Amino acid sequence: MSMFRWALTRLARLVAALLISSFVIFSAASLAPGSPLAALSNGRTLPPEQQEQLRVRFHLDDPFLLRYVKWLWNAVQGDFGVSIASRDDVSRLISGRIWITGQLVLYASILILVIGIGLGLLAGLRRGAADSSVLVATALFAAVPAFVAATLLTILFVTELGWFPALGEGKGFVGRIEHLTLPAISLAMASIAIVARVTRAAVREEFGREHVQTAESRGIPRRQLVRRHVVRNAAVPITTVSGLTVASLFALSAIVERAFSINGLGSYLVRAAGTKDIAVVQGISMVIVVAFVVVNLLVDVCYLVLDPRIRTAGDRR
Amino acid sequence: MTASLGAVVAPRRLARRLSTIGPLGTVSAIVIGIAALIAVIGPWITPHDPNSTDGITLQFQSAPGHLFGYDANGRDVFSRLLAGARTSMLGPLIVVAASITLGVAIAIAAAWRGGRFDTIVSSALDIAFAFPGILLAILAAAVFGAGLFAAVVVLSLAYTPYIARVVRGSALQERSKPYIAALEVQGMSAWRICARHLLPNVSGIVVAQGTTLFGYAMVDLAAISFIGLGVQPPSADWGVMIFENRQGLAIGKPWPAVLAGLCLVGVVIAFNILGERLARRDAGIR
Predict the structure, then answer these.
(1) Which chain A residue is nearest to residue B243, measuring alpha carbons?
(2) Residue B240 sits at the chain A interface (C-beta within 8 Å)
């Protein structure tokens, strides 16, 4: 019962987030100065019959809320309208690019989870040189924005060492990995540092807890102590910060894709924003928001697995 | 910020203030002070016109009288770095000022009223907290056109929850203290209690959080300028400079882009450290 309620509140929150963001994304277009028709036609004056076509196509004569509901209804069915610039279906344009961005985000997420949590555990479990070097390195890396990281990595690994190709997305599995390695590192760098720092702090906090100290004095082997008492409990804050950083990657990929000239969703979003191709901007923004919500859903499932209190009593974390 | 404030405070008091944020915090405050000074006077002390393309035939070359040589368009790199400090720091300043004003107002109202109002505000903040600022800024650029103004407005809104959340927690604690109840019993108006007593007592955490957010705002605005939706060329801005000089990376002339990146990262690190030290100091006082 209580677990059911917990799941229900979580779900309600995500649906609310989805509805609110879709409303923001849709209404942004109507906030634009000038008439919606002018925004749709990109400032050009169109012949009356085309204007009429646009009016019908985008339901411009309907009241605002009705237009929103119609737009949302179509969006749920995968219809985001037509791109002004290319006269192509927005959903077609999106599906052609979604995988490259998905792969980039997946690659970066793996780096964040493996390296970030790994470094955090290392620093948290071992005092001394390992700990302080991780602390210093993460303090530095956390402040390096993705596009600066992209610049520095390009200099080091493309121009100086020639290990990686500079631009584009590559063909085939190996080519793709080769092309996406530097972008994924740029995308992940600051997040790795943040996840490592939170992991370290969480591990340290658990070590200070009474039950851990009691277990230690009872002579429980360290390996078991770490696995059953420290990491198990530290897993909840680690999941929270990992979820937050991974969810933000979808929006951040726009910058990295621009820096490495990758033809993914993000760079297309930026280009569409520059040319005021509103339907494309709305469509891609919605995809990013949905991806964001899905990641949060996964995080909730992790909580369910990690924290038995949710399953039994439904306590707040 | 502390450093510029310190100039009007007596030296001994300044020393005592700085000792509470430690040596690293002091260095950060000095770095920020220098950057702020350059932001104010930078455009007047540039050795060359930052937009003059005199060296158009000397792209990425060094030249006598040009400390860091020419950039991709034959402009003086050093002058553009100095002039860029202003655009790179003015935007974040407005973002932080606006989000503090909004966030503090929301937080104190929520903490004061409590009950249903507080619950609704908190869950609204939770949802808004999750929405990525960069995505909002791209959306704004699509609607209002690329430029610093739209990005600043949108980021101010996106950062408000960061302030409101922290301040609400602090204000709730303060609200439950007996002195507030005593003031209420004395018949002091809610406005007066909030403005004269509640606000000053949460100001430490507001300054700390604002300092940290200044660094975030610098990164976000530079990123937006980097992808071409923020500060428009030929205006000098550190984010724009990294993008403009990207072609230099491939031909072994990375310095214009790298120097702009170093300026940005250096100032951002200073803001991060100072913000952390201020927050630690505030927690120590409590």
Answers:
(1) A259
(2) no
